[in-house]
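Researcher: Watch the backbone:
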Amino acid sequence: MSIDIDQTDWRCVLPNSTIATVHDLKLMNGKVWQVLLKPLDEYPFQAGQFTELLIDGFQFLYFTIASAPHSPCIELHVQGGTETNDRLIEYLRQQGSVSLAPAGGRCILPSLAKETGPLLLIASGTGFSQVKSIVEDYIANDSERPIYIYWASYKLGQLYMLEKAEAWAEQEANIHLTALISEQSHWEDKHQMLLHSILSEQSDLTKAQTILCGSPKMVYSLFDALVEKGFRPASVLSDVFDFAPRESA
């Protein structure tokens, strides 16, 4: 997932960058590129964090890390079809290496109170990259906590790693997947579909925690709706809360 960051608040000097070679570039469904970068030195991060690509001529290339911390490569999901991202893919193809800023972000499980209730991972589009990192980290650590994945998009082809998500649900008894397709152009249609699906499966939202992975409009509308239905505000995480905070009333 690419992240839009307020330039005045978040742009800063990032020391200790790490060189990574381009291990692989693969075009998946939905014009999403899977980018695998292999750091030449240790690159510590926690599942759910993001990195920045530091390239002359580009600005604010922030992407959620889609791989788990135990993976040898840093995996990014880059949505093709925009001038900047298409130019980035061509740069990586030609140059073969890139500098990574240190990983950042507070959208990690240790930011939540330690609980055993259901963990809801709700994503739209390439927000799935954050879901992938967290789920693969959970699997690697043999966690038995119930995980419910809700992944929404406008078209089936935009669920670019659906087979992988389905494999998790088939192989892991505690992982449940709901893939949602809405070809309607209005966000409200997809929002209502997501909310209905969540409420039909979760009988007691007061026992759940969630990570919301998507645009500010998606995150805040779902946050409000879930809290209205009993979700605890302190049990919701999203990068959007830091990158696009609401103005005070």
